[in-house]
Design a protein that fits this description.
The chain is α+β, with helices and mostly antiparallel strands. It has helices at residues 3-17, 21-29, 39-50, 58-67, 69-78, 111-118, 122-129, 134-137, 166-178, 198-202, 225-235, 239-249, 267-277, 289-296, 298-310, 328-332, 334-347, 381-397, 410-424, 426-436; strands at 30-31, 86-87, 146-152, 158-164, 210-217, 314-318, 321-326, 351-352, 358-361, 367-368, 371-372, 378-379.
């Protein structure tokens, strides 16, 4: 039998046999003419290599077999006698890691089952997942699943908003509600988690002696498609299903959506953004992206929580905003501590926005995510005064005179801003609400 053919058959058998791969391979799942003495030790080495990890890809098993000295010795010694007598196939199965068995996600063990779950044909499913990158390669906008909008930041960086079209958004919403929402986020995470908010993110740091604030650069595009597919395999989905789920949740932005360098856009930043967003990544604008980003950052959150606890500090995260706080003992070692944090983040594949790193001690305004955290959580005075002036002018001159950004639902926009202040500071929010109620809406 050709060497590569035997490798592929062995790889399929090993993957189908997890976790009882020794029994499946050595006792009938794969029968190589006789019970070869080298087969059971090979299965044990496989279990030792991949046990406790995310289920490996087919190509990972091939690499393992190619690099296994025992298997190579057996092949060169017995290749003339090796033949596949029979192979019992059990089909693909859900194989979650131990902790994932309690999550209760829907079992989907094949591409056909996934298509039925989405109520799609397999060809439509593959089109939406776009694993071949047709949306990136083709210039026809009708073949693309996203609308694009470019935002230039004051710092010069560029952010790309990728909004999924309605049908793809429905598929992503289904993944969010039926799979991702059933998986618990780390306790330190407060962004995009039910029951938590920006207020719960800041509360642990109120009244602390010192606060360290750090920011992650290009948060969503940092998560590559391979990382998302690995996560779905961790949940238990077979490789083919995990790849399609990852494809539905990721995107590669076509190059022609980017403008030519012009006034207000730094060519260097534009080139970097094109290169970053051209690789399949989590799109900012998809409903699944915040939950997937939180879940894929679980190990980072565990490491940073442990690091904070080792020095008596507290740690919370809200999307790409990271905060630590503590007492005088923490203040003495905070510079070295921030270096350790940056090292962990770099090890995990993130980029720290060093210009936004702040060490804020008592006596100065300690602020996180645009809110003051010194003695109690509060909105910043300039932000409060600006919103109060807008509401007052709406009463005097009419709301349309203040709608400079042409919000289609300006009343809901203003009411949301007032509601946010009410959540943070009820007394100030009550004053703004009284002004809002005096506005004459046509």
């Amino acid at each position: 039998m050709p060497f590569l053919s035997l490798l592929r058959i062995l790889a399929r058998s090993f993957l189908a046999g997890e976790p009882a791969v020794e029994e499946i391979v050595a006792r009938g799942g794969l029968t190589l003419g006789k019970r070869w003495r080298w087969l059971r030790p090979l299965a044990r080495r496989y279990v030792k290599t991949f046990s406790g990890k995310t289920r490996p890809r087919h190509r990972d098993v091939i690499v393992f077999l190619l690099q296994d000295p025992g298997f190579r010795r057996a092949w060169f010694k017995h290749r003339s006698d090796l033949s596949i007598v029979r192979m019992l196939t059990r089909g693909q199965q859900m194989q979650p890691v131990a902790v994932a068995k309690t999550w209760g996600v829907p079992p989907v063990a094949s591409i056909g089952a996934l298509a039925d779950w989405f109520q799609l044909t397999p060809s439509k499913l593959e089109w939406f997942a776009d694993l071949k990158g047709l949306g990136y390669k083709k210039s026809n906008p009708q073949l693309r699943h996203y609308h694009y909008r470019i935002l230039a930041k004051n710092s010069g960086n560029i952010r790309l908003i990728e909004a999924p079209k309605p049908r793809l958004k429905e598929l992503q919403q289904q993944i969010l509600t039926q799979i991702l929402d059933k998986i618990p986020a780390h306790p330190a995470v407060h962004g995009f988690v039910k029951g938590r908010s920006i207020k719960t993110f800041i509360t642990p740091h109120v009244g602390q002696r010192v606060i360290l604030r750090m920011d992650l650069r290009d948060f969503f595009p940092t998560f590559a498609a391979a990382r998302i597919q690995t996560f779905f395999r961790t949940v238990g989905y077979p490789e083919s299903v995990a790849d399609l789920l990852g494809g539905i949740c990721t995107n590669a932005a076509p190059r022609d959506v980017w403008p030519k360098p012009g006034v207000g856009i730094d060519p260097q930043y534009l080139w970097e953004a094109r290169a970053l967003y051209s690789q399949p990544h989590l799109p900012q604008g998809a409903p699944t992206s915040p939950a997937l980003a939180n879940l894929c950052t679980y190990r980072v959150d565990c490491r940073l929580t442990g690091l904070a606890e080792s020095v008596g500090a507290r740690y919370t995260r809200y999307a790409d905003d990271i905060a630590f706080s503590g007492s005088a003992a923490f203040e003495k070692r905070i510079e070295r501590f921030s270096t350790h944090v940056a090292a962990i983040l770099i090890e995990e594949g993130f980029t720290v926005h060093h210009r936004k790193t702040r060490i804020m001690r008592q006596g100065v305004r300690q602020h996180l995510a645009g809110l003051v955290a010194n003695q109690r959580i509060n909105v910043m005075r300039p932000d409060f005064d600006r919103l109060k002036a807008i509401l007052t002018n709406c009463v005097r001159l009419g709301p349309q005179s203040q709608n400079r950004d042409v919000h289609p639902r300006y009343r809901s926009h203003l009411e949301g801003r007032v509601g946010f202040v009410e959540m943070i500071n009820p007394a100030r929010g009550k004053r703004l609400r009284a002004i809002f109620e005096r506005i004459q809406w046509q």
